[in-house]
Design a protein that fits this description.
By secondary structure, the chain is mainly α. The protein is about 65% helix and about 5% strand. It has five domains: about 120 residues; about 160 residues, Orthogonal Bundle (Helix Hairpins), CATH 1.10.287; about 90 residues, no CATH class; about 130 residues, Up-down Bundle (Four Helix Bundle (Hemerythrin (Met), subunit A)), CATH 1.20.120.350; about 130 residues, no CATH class. It is globular and about 90 Å long. InterPro entries: Ion_trans_dom (IPR005821), Volt_channel_dom_sf (IPR027359).
Length: about 775
């Protein structure tokens, strides 16, 4: 019986943990499977998986064409090790899920296929290498699949689902855009082809229809504006109207339509994602409750002892005092049990960071109490605690920033830097004298650590520079300027005190976790296009030092670039000769500027190589020119496809997320759970008053009364040894905020759908109760 209860408690803890972290893995509930599930979700296992995923991706840096070449045997052994780890992780996942669920999961099939393809390609490439036969490592393009399809990468998969769901609507807009582009290109052909105009390089201007289409497509990105217009504009000023109309319709209207369509679809499918997460979370909490419930009168409840054991399993790192606080919130009337409504909120309670602050006396108050508690000492500490002290130093930092920007040759400015350094040292010493040191340097006191480290760095750099000034090229004042510039960041707190600025700051902080998701998404796209680019363009362009005597050094190693703007502009390092260079080129393409020059460069090089190779062999120049045109088309498609995927789709999805985060931040209010915690903290007399935070709200800094914990002087003495406060509400993801808004609309009596039904929810699925789609978002 005891063993059965222990297993039920372990299973309930797994459900609560899944609800807390929004995991939706359908694991088996047998005791062995539950233990394996705990191991699967252990931080070490997840960290090791990510390590081998990125190790596998980084092999492209060491494989041919390599940035840092390593022997093929070394890279192949590392790749085999990574594939074995991936296979082991997949088998671990198979052990905790039902067989039918495992084989229906597309991501598992993708991982197995990617492992099989990688091993097959590795074996073929190695065998051909033995016989000195050059081959292509085509399987490298599937390596990003591991980053996307493992269970840990659910956020990246969501981003890809957003792209997939958005594509149908984007296609309609893109077709209209292409129709407009083709029509304007046809008009341009009729307007300019008979004018015998030439570009600045002396080339024919707007005489080939496909070239016109491409040039106008580049104009949509503004990368070749106003260059593409100038020959026609020089001929007649009236022709500017044609380009103005084109830019208004295609750049401003159609590009805005792309963003509108992406945002509308993103919001619609985000609604479904959040609804699925909310129902899954509710369902898991109810499953946990059903495992632990006992009958109490007319209702089912969870006993206090079981609740404590559950919380210890789910959150072993929280303190006993924190756990007791959560119990007092869940069992408000201290009946000895937790009802269903309070139990369902446990996952939200655990997600809210409650800081436990211990009241300690200042060491100086123990070592020399008469001096520390004297009238002069108390007055000095009251001055330091006053908000005017903070404002004074904010003004000093602002003046310091002005001095840094002034003429550093002036001796008065040079002396002023030493005055500022002395003032900053005095500030830190006064704060350490006033506030209890362990509380002042607590793990949540970012600005205190920041200020102290900056002053310490400035003092250390100045001493080292004075000692070693004969070997450095910066004088002491310049070193102080460089370090003090970082202190100007403290002025962010002034901006944060303004409500409108605070909304922007909150939005920026809330999108930081999602930046990692879109960083992973960008990494996947970059890896795929970089590997394709290396296979297409490797060796076509070379970089040579300025004093090189190599043939065609000034033409980037290729005669096709003789007298070209690309060579004269010294863009030779923009090539696909290795993984790092490819990433840099793709970054330049993402920024859009000059991307058409890079595209034209690669196209010209391919045509030149083809003509030099084929013409001596085949006398039919007609076929040669025709094949050259065909060969050029994939080059165009490569760059245009990257522009569409990265700039039009992914960047617009990221912009959509920022818009949604901004709107949510404007409408954000405290959640019901957070309010309950704060009320209970104040009822217990163990809280930090909210009013004390109004003037100093950024990152829970120590410069307001809320953290004055030395227990005497300047603050009411606390009768208890602990106080609590809610950590900054800035550190919440937008997904969590939207999910909480949706959960508030779900009635408690609605136990929701089954796990399988929840996972199969569609955007058009009916929402239980009186919940409308507008209210869901």
């Amino acid at each position: 019986m005891a063993e059965s209860a222990s297993q039920e408690l372990l299973l309930a803890a797994a459900f609560v943990s899944d609800a807390q972290y929004n995991r939706n893995i359908p694991f088996k509930t047998s005791p062995e499977a539950v233990r394996l599930y705990y191991l699967y979700n252990h931080w070490f296992m997840r960290t090791a998986t990510y390590f081998f995923i990125f190790l596998n991706l980084s092999l492209a840096v060491f494989e041919e064409p390599a940035v840092y070449p390593l022997p093929f045997l070394a890279t192949s052994l590392v790749e085999v090790l990574c594939l074995l780890v991936f296979f082991g992780r997949l088998m671990h996942f198979a052990k905790i899920t039902c067989r039918s669920v495992f084989w229906k999961d597309t991501k598992n099939i993708c991982i197995m296929v990617a492992i099989l393809l990688s091993l097959t390609d590795l074996a073929i490439y190695g065998a051909l290498r033995i016989y000195n036969i050059k081959s292509i490592r085509w399987s490298r393009i599937v390596r990003p699949i591991f980053l996307v399809n493992f269970a840990e990468s659910r956020q990246i998969r969501r981003a890809f689902r957003s792209i997939r769901n958005t594509l149908p609507e984007i296609t309609y807009v893109f077709l209209l855009f292409m129709f407009s582009l083709l029509m304007f290109s046809l008009m341009a052909l009729k307007l300019f082809s008979e004018r015998n105009l030439q570009t600045a390089e002396g080339l024919p201007y707007f005489r080939d229809y496909l070239e016109i289409v491409f040039d106008l497509y580049v104009l949509v990105t503004t990368a070749n504006s106003p260059d593409v217009m100038m020959p026609a504009f020089d001929f007649s000023s009236w022709y500017a109207l044609f380009f103005i109309a084109f830019v208004i319709i295609n750049t401003y209207i159609f590009m805005s339509l792309f963003l509108a369509v992406v945002y509308n679809n993103y919001k619609k499918h985000l609604k479904n994602e959040i609804r699925t997460l909310a129902y899954m979370k509710r369902r898991k909490m109810i499953e946990a409750f059903n495992l632990l419930k006992e009958e109490e009168g007319t209702q089912f409840v969870v006993r206090e002892a079981k609740w404590k054991q559950l919380v210890k399993l789910v959150a072993p790192d929280i303190s006993n005092s924190h756990r007791e606080l959560l119990l007092r919130i869940s069992d408000d009337e201290q009946k000895g049990f937790i009802d269903k409504k309070s139990f369902v909120q446990l996952a939200d309670l655990l997600n809210i960071q409650v800081i436990t602050l211990k009241i300690r006396s200042h060491p100086l108050g123990q070592w020399m109490p008469r001096v520390y508690r004297s009238a002069v000492s108390q007055f000095l500490r009251s001055v330091v605690r006053h908000r005017g002290f903070v404002w004074t130093y904010d003004v000093i930092i602002l003046i310091n920033a002005i001095f840094i920007a002034l003429d550093e040759e002036s001796p008065y400015i040079s002396y002023a830097e030493w005055v500022f350094l002395a003032l900053y040292i005095i500030e830190i010493l006064l704060k350490i004298y006033t506030y209890e040191p362990r509380a002042f340097f607590g793990k949540n006191q970012f600005w205190n650590w920041f200020d102290t480290l900056i002053i310490f760095a400035a003092l250390t750099a100045t001493i080292l520079n004075t000692t070693l000034k004969s070997t450095t090229k910066y004088n002491s004042q310049r070193i102080l300027d460089i370090v003090f510039i970082l202190r100007v960041l403290r002025l962010i707190r002034i901006v944060d005190s303004i409500q409108r600025f605070r909304v922007i700051m909150n939005t920026l902080i809330n999108i930081v976790p999602t930046m990692l998701t879109f960083g992973g998404l960008t990494l996947v796209v970059y890896c795929i296009f970089a590997i394709i680019g290396m296979e297409l363009f490797h060796g076509k362009i070379q970089f040579f030092p300025a004093n090189s005597n190599a043939p065609y050094a000034l033409e980037c190693g290729n005669p096709a670039l003789k007298d070209s703007l690309f060579a004269r502009g010294k863009y030779c390092k923009n090539n696909f000769n290795n993984f790092a260079s490819s990433f840099i080129v793709l970054m330049e393409l993402t920024v859009v500027n000059q991307w058409h020059d890079i595209l034209c460069l690669q196209w010209n090089v391919m045509n030149w190589n083809f003509v030099n190779t084929i013409l001596p062999l085949i006398p039919f120049i007609l076929f040669a020119n025709g094949f050259a045109n065909v060969t050029a088309q994939p080059v165009k498609l490569y760059f245009i496809a990257f522009h569409i995927v990265m700039v039009i789709i992914i960047v617009n999805i990221f912009v959509s997320f920022i818009l949604e985060a901004f709107f949510v931040e404007y409408s954000l209010e405290k959640s019901e759970v957070e309010t309950a915690i704060e009320q209970k903290i104040q009822e217990l007399g163990m809280g930090v008053q909210e009013e004390a935070l109004q003037d100093e709200q950024l990152l829970d800094n120590m410069e307001s009364a809320d953290n004055d914990l030395e227990g005497e002087g300047g603050m009411k003495s606390q009768p208890k040894g602990l106080v609590f406060k809610i950590a900054s509400k800035r550190y919440r993801t937008v997904d969590a905020l939207l999910q909480r808004m949706f959960e508030a609309e779900i009635p408690l009596e609605d136990e929701g759908l089954s796990f399988e039904e929840i996972l199969n929810l569609s955007p058009a699925a009916a929402v239980p109760g009186d919940l409308t789609s507008e209210r869901a978002v």
